[in-house]
Amino acid sequence: MSKYYLNYLDELESEAIYILREVWAQFENPVILFSGGKDSILVTHLAKKAFFPSKIPFALMHVDTGHNFPETIKFRDDLIKELGVKLIVGSVQESINSGRVAEEKGKNATRNALQITTLLDAIEENKIDCAIGGGRRDEEKARAKERFFSHRDDFGQWDPKNQRPELWNLLNGKHFEGEHFRAFPISNWTEMDVWNYIKRENIKIPSLYFAHERKVVFRSNSWIPVSEYLRLEEGENIEKKKIRFRTLGDITITGGIESDADTLEKIVQEVSAMRKTERGDRSDDKRSETAMEDRKKQGYF
Amino acid sequence: MEINNNQLLRFTTAGSVDDGKSTLIGRLLYDSKSIFEDQLESVSATSAKKGHDGVDLALFTDGLKDEREQGITIDVAYRYFTTPKRKFIIADTPGHIQYTRNMVTGASTANAAVILIDARHGVIEQTKRHSFIASLLNIPHLIVCVNKMDLVDFSEEVYNNIIIQFEEFSSKLLMKDVRFIPISALKGDNVVNKSENMAWYQNGTLLSTLENLHISSDINKIDARFPVQTVLRPQSDRYRDYRGYAGRIASGIYRTGDEVAVLPSGFTSKIRSINAGEKEVEEAYAPMSVAITLEDDIDVSRGDMIVKKNNQPEQEQEFDVMLCWLNNDAMNPRAKYTIVHTSNEERAIIKEVIYKMNINTFERDSEDSNLEMNDIARVKIRTTRRLMLDSYRDNRITGSIIIIDENSNETVAAGMIV
């Protein structure tokens, strides 16, 4: 006799597919926010399953800081071609050129916060009423409070104290003109779940996640990759190390870890033995205790 | 960690402000080794800044800026941990009466509720309220933790008295599975590790209880209900005639060849195929997300329900609901609301408030018909068209509704069909 209960990965998959289908049913013009990182790749993979044998009915939207790993861009373009879906790019460089935002100054300047304006502009320009993200509640304490369907007002802002209650599996995506929603189908997944599932499904991910030799400098406790945007500071040396990345973002702020994990099996093993959170290597979250909460209120991913 | 056949267990925690709920969750995470070094460092630093000795476990569940400033939980927060046996999702909900709506939210999807009682105070009003909500939301398993046992010298007598108090008031409530555990969240007794101070307690710790609850029967596998979310029509060469009805099975089991009826039209057909993602399967069960095709070409769209021909839900336009009001704006008896039930929505009015529930005394008040935030009442609802309904006791998915205010688009109430 067969069993009639799901294991946890199947249940998470089923929940995510349900949410993706609700997005499609409740909104006019949804997109998947695609960063080239594993979480947005996972969401895209789940969308493929949710609508099979139809094509994914959403465009992918990439908010491009201009500071990319070349590997990420190639991965993105290959995936778009394979899926036959449309790509929308919101460019931070263009936002800077047109004077919408100004480059941060000082030693720790990044383009991280600038993405908010580019993202909100792209949402408005393309008349997007729901942006599907790969955010997970285990990532950060502000994200722990997120809904599956998260309302944004007509300024794109999140009001964490006044969120719509979400009961059972009943999702309320009703909104007025100019407002939009963010949807988070993998809210309930942890980093470990994501890796276990990627391994189980053998999902293609960028080579950056696997251990490889790279030129790096040691900064704020992690290995920052050498790129044309990196300015060496006093006392910093370029070294060659075997590293891999746990998360992928803007090349100027994404730190790698020393690792020999060059297969999915080894990555899963390594992650399960990890004693630090994955965002521990992201300098964007280290700025203050409420860095993520503050950015999210303004409209961040 | 290789976990293959492990289930997911969702539980909610409830306790009043000083019952040590945050400490308990912190303890569960910490002792089950689910806390990372950087989290520990940050919490240790904050603990030191605040002048605590050692690590303040409660800080692991710290939330938003306002919550930290006020030292309370305002909104539901979700926490995660995994043991070799199961994956757990904690809906960490605030205990205070003004946040009843958040407890209801956290309880709606929970397999289990963990209710905390301070051993020094015994059963108090909040305990009754939390237990009432757990029973109203039909949470299958209830675990009552008598906390702060260290402050009553780990006394078996104190513990037994609290169990008696609990049994007395809870005999009025519908509950299937209740367990009691004496713990000290602060000292770690019986949370993850067995207590050395309470040899008189022979049963499992909180974690081992959570790991061993029988949850695979929590979902109804008898009454097959499949609400259609959307229709898949690829119109590609290969799938020219494909019409798949996509949805998540709410309850029951479906097999190819099953004779089914499509509601509300009542047309009957047979299941031709079932797809779970790219994979074709012979049978599927709740809570799987699938796409179903039928032998006959009948009109099916979002909001319809595919059920077995010989086991159908009631179709009603007027029905009773236990309603929990969730919004700052009180219920307006003349307003038109939108009711959402599975993938279906209709306009509705709240025709009558039959009685309001006093959630501290369990008394019914049929005089008061005002419904304000956090109120729970039995009401009569009338919809523009019939809905396909089951009672909430039989089916948590097809027995639940939410109500949306058409002026604000906000979810103003949640209800359980009686």
TrEMBL record, chain A:
Family the UniProt entry places it in: Belongs to the PAPS reductase family. CysD subfamily.
NCBIfam families associated with the record: CysD, PRK05253.1, PRK12563.1
EC number from the UniProt entry: 2.7.7.4
UniProt entry tagged with the keyword ATP-binding: yes
All copies of domain Phosphoadenosine phosphosulphate reductase, residue ranges: 29-254
Family annotation (InterPro entries): PAPS_reduct_dom (IPR002500), Rossmann-like_a/b/a_fold (IPR014729), SO4_adenylTrfase_ssu (IPR011784), Sulfate_adenylyltrnsfr_sub2 (IPR050128)
Enzyme class: transferase
SUPFAM superfamilies attached to this UniProt entry: Adenine nucleotide alpha hydrolases-like (SSF52402)
One Pfam family named in its UniProt record: PAPS_reduct
Ranges for region Disordered: 274-301
Protein name in the entry: Sulfate adenylyltransferase subunit 2
Keywords: ATP-binding, Nucleotide-binding, Nucleotidyltransferase, Transferase
Organism name: Salinimicrobium sediminis
Keyword Zinc-finger: no
GO molecular function, one term: sulfate adenylyltransferase (ATP) activity
Lineage, broadest ranks: Bacteria, Pseudomonadati, Bacteroidota, Flavobacteriia, Flavobacteriales
Automatic annotation (TrEMBL), chain B:
InterPro entries referenced in this protein's UniProt entry, alphabetically: CysN_GTP-bd, CysN_II, CysN_NoDQ_III, G_TR_CS, GTP-eEF1A_C, P-loop_NTPase, Small_GTP-bd, SO4_adenylTrfase_lsu
Enzyme class: transferase
Keyword Nucleotide-binding: yes
Annotated GO MF terms: ATP binding; GTP binding; GTPase activity; sulfate adenylyltransferase (ATP) activity
Keyword Transport attributed: no
Cited Gene3D superfamilies: P-loop containing nucleotide triphosphate hydrolases, Translation factors
EC number: 2.7.7.4
PROSITE patterns hit by this protein: G_TR_1, G_TR_2
Domain Tr-type G: 6-230
Keywords from the UniProt entry: ATP-binding, GTP-binding, Nucleotide-binding, Nucleotidyltransferase, Transferase
Any one GO biological process: sulfur compound metabolic process
Name of the protein in its database record: sulfate adenylyltransferase
The species this protein was found in: Salinimicrobium sediminis
